[in-house]
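Sat 14:20. Reprocessing the chain from the morning session after the first attempt stalled halfway. Input below, unchanged.
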Amino acid sequence: MADLVSRSLVTRSAAFTTFFFLLASLPFTASSVVDLRPAIGFDLGQSYGTAVAHFSNGTVLKLAKVEGSQRYQAFLQSELQKQQEAWWYPPHAEIQREDLSRLLKQYMGIGGPDGAVILAEMLIALRTSSEAVLGAPLPATVVITAPYIIAWSYEETLQISYIKRAQKLAGLRTVKMESMTPVYLGEANTILAANRRMLCPDLFCNGPEWTNENFHKYDVVYLVRFGLNQLEQASDQEMFWRELQDHLKSRVREYVKQPDNYRESFLVVVSGEAADNPKVVEAIRGIITDMQKDPAFRVVETGRAPRIELLISEDPTYAAAKGVAFGQRINMDSRYCDDWFEREKAMGGGRDEDSRDEL
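Finished this time. Tokens:
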């Protein structure tokens, strides 16, 4: 059982970003040419990695699941814990100091392996296993999803990005930075996409000005150390699960204490391999029941309990990889937007063909 499971997410269902907010700036090919290459998605999870291929006919093939090494898991845990309260980019001088420190340690051979090397080990394992299943080298750019790490926010579009350097070390083709494509996509968004939630064709096909979607998002539980690997050694398992519920509920309570935060409805998404554990799901259901009974979670304007939907992710272990592969598939194949343009044209609100070709 994974020691680190931050994939149990509590999100605002009425005011959340769509997966396609991150994809809206990806290059769009206007012609309806079918790209027959499979779209490949890798998920760099906290304790394991997965790989998925999404073919042009809609077939989804699970390619690999690789357990992370101890240093892989330790590295991601360390990165997740950095700057978790710093909800803004660090100063430029700090970025330069960190980059210089990294280069000096690498040159002098001190401080252990660089983070990009650790991530590259996982990417190489995923690539090797995937190519064995496909029977050929990976045919296209691999798109990556990972837990959203605040400490990486300033390097999402920089050459020094851990993930971008890891891709190069692993022999993977990388996205072109001038396209402003994110180096990686956060797991919260890709898991939602895998479950066909928070999708917005208006935004993806024609840009932010063509949608009424609210793009704000807040991950209430962005870092949780469940200690599920210690469950078997727990002297009192009932107490273990109660403490888990209390911890998660306290995190949500911190969110609702902020007066301007939305609290009318929530979407609770459970994913990752722990989602297959009935005790985990039972604990999450208990939290939802407590939230609906607790006055602290009442909607201020109406005094009513919030609407809370529980979504157990389909194929939870591979959900994030499936979501990011789906995003790459629609980016490779313009047919996804054909229906949107035809509908807008029929309604008299869409752009004409010349305007579409400019996108």
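Confidence is low (pLDDT under 50) at residues 1-31, 209-224, 354-359.
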